[in-house]
Design brief:
Layout: H1 10-20, H2 24-34, H3 63-66, H4 71-85, H5 90-106, H6 111-137, H7 142-145, H8 149-159, E1 164-165, H9 166-173, H10 177-199, H11 208-220, H12 226-233, E2 236-237, H13 241-251, H14 259-272, H15 276-293
Parallel strand pairs: 1-2
């Protein structure tokens, strides 16, 4: 991640903050880059596992727990990807470079970690309120959707609802079973929850109770192997010919010589339409597939 001649000396900014015990300039620079972590922005997917986020921002003693499983390395890798790929304005570039410096220098105690945790906590609160509003609008109680998980699996197996975006489906199918659960808890579950709640905004939705129960399961995180079941039993939401070809090749377990090129095009198309979280899932899944083929 080489700096351009006009890039800010972020190390000097942090050194100065420590020297005079005044972090206003650090926050000013950092905030410009952190805007890219908001939903709909290129780093929207840089989040912690859902089961490590509560309804309140974590205190300093909890930050290390959030950063387990190589999170700091993945975060830095995704920031560097955005720095290399996107045409950012100078403020955004300086802010992201400062974020990387803070991660390397302070690790789990970096202001970067705390800011992501606060953002994700706020997102979780919004999602929970939307779930509660939907529950009330449908005239249901928490007990109606917060139990009898076997019935949820029966519905999935019988109806095979199309709730997974192609990127989510592909990522889960390309990930070994012992790692797929962690992948589900690292963002796919919340995408399914959001999709269910968005679908339930329509009038006269069939299977509304079951779809709300699926949303509840993702919010509570109490149903093991739910993501694996969805990936194995349901079809993906396919939008392009390339996705259709890859889907057919995987489900039919047939090798296809055009598969690598098609996956690369799917990554680019997913990113181009603004699904940055989906594109990141596809990139990581493609790497796992390539590693297995070596």
């Amino acid at each position: 991640m080489a700096g351009a001649p006009t890039d800010l000396n972020v190390a000097a900014v942090v050194d100065r903050a420590i020297e005079v015990d005044d972090w206003d300039r650090v926050h000013e620079v950092f905030d410009q880059g952190f805007e890219l972590f908001e939903p709909g922005q290129p780093l929207e997917h840089v989040r912690f596992r859902d089961d490590r986020i509560s309804s309140r921002p974590p205190d300093r003693s909890e930050l290390s727990r959030l950063c387990a499983d190589g999170w700091l390395r993945r975060c830095e890798r995704e920031i560097c990807y955005v720095l290399d790929r996107y045409d950012l304005d100078q403020g955004e570039r300086d802010g992201l470079r400062l974020a990387v410096h803070l991660l390397r220098r302070f690790g789990a105690l970096s202001p970067m970690v705390e800011s992501v945790a606060e953002l994700q906590t706020a997102e979780r609160s919004i999602r929970a309120r939307k779930f509660g509003d939907t529950l009330s609008r449908l005239g249901l109680a928490v007990n109606d959707v917060g139990a009898d998980w076997a019935r949820l699996f029966d519905w999935i197996e019988c109806e095979r609802p199309t709730v997974l975006l192609f990127a989510d489906w592909f990522a889960l199918r390309a990930t070994p079973g012992d790692q797929a659960e962690a992948l589900w808890l690292s963002g796919i579950g919340t995408r399914v929850c959001d999709a269910c709640l968005h679908f339930l905004e329509k009038q006269n939705v069939p299977d509304a109770r079951e779809r709300l129960q699926l949303a509840a399961a993702t919010l509570l995180g109490v149903v093991p192997r739910l993501g694996i079941a969805l990936a194995q039993l349901t079809t993906a939401r396919i939008t392009t010919d390339d996705e259709r070809m890859v889907y057919a090749a995987i489900t039919n377990k047939e090798p296809h010589e055009q598969l690598p090129g098609a996956i690369a095009r799917i990554v680019d198309a997913t990113e181009a339409r603004g699904d940055f979280a989906g594109a990141a899932l596809l990139r990581e899944a493609r790497q796992r597939v390539q590693a297995l083929q070596r």
